[in-house]
Amino acid sequence: MKKILISYATAGVGHKRAALSVMEALEELSPGDAEISIIDSLNYTNDFFRWTYLKGFVFLVNRFPVIWGLGYYITDNFYVNAVLSGISRLSNWINSKKLREYLIATQPDVIISAHFYLSEVASDLKRQNLLRSQLVTVVTDYILHAWWVTPQTDMYVVGSEHARQDLLRWKTDPRKIKVLGIPVAPIFCKQLDRKEIIGRIGIRQGVMTVLVLGGGYGIGPIEGIVKAIDSVEIPVQIIAICGFNEKLKGRLEQLRPHLKHEMKVFGFVYNVYEYMEASDLLISKSGGITTAESLSKDLPMLVVSPIVGQETRNCAFLTGAGAAMKINGLSGLKGAIEEIAAHPEKADSMKRAIRNIRKPAASYDIAQMVLGLCGISAKKAPLCE
After folding, report:
1. pLDDT tens digits along 180-209
2. What angle do CA 162, 358, 223 make, to 5 degrees?
3. Domain locations in the chain?
4. 125, 339, 379, 381 — which has fewest CB within 10 A?
5. Predicted local confidence at residue 258, as pLDDT
């Protein structure tokens, strides 16, 4: 029985969603010859390290985004990274004792890492010949950062040709790079009944539906976005998903009776694919997983207030491909929405661009590749619709 370990880290929700997507595809395609497990790698660290990893990210992004962005870009410099990578490795080594013990004891045949933290720890163990696993690193943004590059990774999965070129610049063996896409839940591969979903969630048929997302933690000027949408002169309806941000959800519920356009407000949802299916336009930051999901659903996107660093890079990738529009300031939202409504060919153009870059079958493709590394013949994956 081959052992496959999938790992993520709770630095945001996206890494977990990517890992769960691959697990679901593996369970669907495996003929039963594999033992598949999943862990949050930060659960194998001490409480302080785990707390700072998540809370530090959210704090910097919310309160000091410029500092976060500056750090992101500085550490992506080859020479700066060469100096700081040793400090990072030392910190990770000090705080990863339980994780190292777990990996050495279990010796998975293949490790799928959806966050660079475990990739670095596993890479060091492989370098010391303490771990025999094949290491597959799944990059969850469309443009690479140096943190993802680990010497002992056996295979990189990236979402774009741009990320492949980034890896080549870091002297990665091209045979170790697969452009399979950023993994999303297999259900994103399937065409759903839009009319049935619209009726079930209680919105009106034939009215432009704008979906507002702030990621798993409801980050961004969501209230300002809602108010800007409410100022448009054409009929629209709003779906706002706040993630785990209950305070934001409460504020939007208080705001809802005062809006001229109808709005549905939700907290964290597991069926975001249905809300995307029912929507005509997405307004969000450009997180890797949210972006990959919207591309899978051919959903045109207006990017507002992306996090400086990984999200501004994702935004550049999308806008460069013609698959999204970046809105500079909330004041530009009203005009952009009205322009898209008045000129449907603009949305059609974005959809055509989306189809050139989307990879809705990424989870299945990754699962087939991993089962192949284990010497297991995968079941046939369903065709994406």
Report:
1. 999 999 999 888 999 999 999 999 999 999
2. 95
3. 2-184+360-373, 189-357
4. 339
5. 94
Helices assigned H by DSSP within 96-185: 97-106, 116-127, 161-169
Structure tokens at 342: 């008045």
Coarse DSSP helix, strand, coil percentages of the chain, rounded to the nearest 5 percent: 55, 15, 30
Task: Give, to the nearest 10 degrees, the angle between helix 333-342 and helix 222-230.
Answer: 50
Looking at the domain that runs over 189-357, which CATH code has it been given? 3.40.50.2000
Give the CA distances from residue 199 to residues 92, 127, 275, 277, in Å, rounded to whole numbers and listed in that order: 49, 56, 12, 12
- Positive or negative, the CA dihedral 283, 284, 289, 292 is positive
Q: Residue 184: name the closest of 117, 239, 138, 225 by CA.
A: 138
Cα-to-chain-centroid distance, residue 178: 18
Q: Are 69 and 312 in contact (CB under 8 A)?
A: yes
Distance CA 368, CA 230 (A): 45
> What single string gives the DSSP state of each residue in 243-254?
TT-HHHHHHHHH
CA distance 96 to 116: 13
CATH match of 2-184+360-373 with 3.40.50.2000: yes
Q: What is the DSSP letter of 4?
A: E
Mean pLDDT computed over 8-26: 91
Same CATH fold assignment for domains 2-184+360-373 and 189-357 = yes
Task: Report how far apart the first and last C-alpha atoms of the chain are (Å, whole number).
Answer: 33
Q: How far is CA 316 from CA 167, 310, 327, 334, in A?
A: 18, 10, 12, 22
**Reported confidence tier of residue 54, pLDDT bands at 50, 70, 90:** confident
